[in-house]
Design goal:
It is a single chain. By secondary structure, the protein is of the alpha/beta class. The protein contains 4 helices and 3 strands. The protein has helices at 21-30, 51-56, 60-64, 76-79, and strands at 8-14, 38-45, 66-71. The chain has a 3-stranded parallel beta sheet. Helix 1 links the parallel strand 1 (8-14) and strand 2. The protein starts with 7 loop residues before the first strand and ends with a helix.
């Protein structure tokens, strides 16, 4: 298989009541051997724990590769 150097996006619908889960999930994605090709798209579906706060705890290089979409709670299907 040829490596074309393309990017890989991880899309994460987010609704949590416990802090730390999003940061752990993104950390797992960003530490894969794919390096800087990995991007994250987080859709905060009106979560009680704000995704913005979780993302703020990430290292700057990871924050730069994370896109946050915030919306009123519409359920998992809409967040996907």
């Amino acid at each position: 298989m040829n490596d074309t150097g393309g990017r890989i996006a991880v899309i994460t619908p987010f609704f949590q009541r416990k802090p730390g889960l999003l940061a752990a999930a993104l950390g797992s994605a960003f530490t894969q051997t794919l390096g800087e090709r990995v991007r994250a798209i987080v859709v905060d579906d009106g979560s009680p724990v704000a995704a913005r706060d979780e993302i703020a705890m990430l290292p700057p290089a990871w924050r730069a590769r994370t896109l946050l979409v915030e919306q009123a709670n519409a359920g998992a299907g809409a967040a996907r």
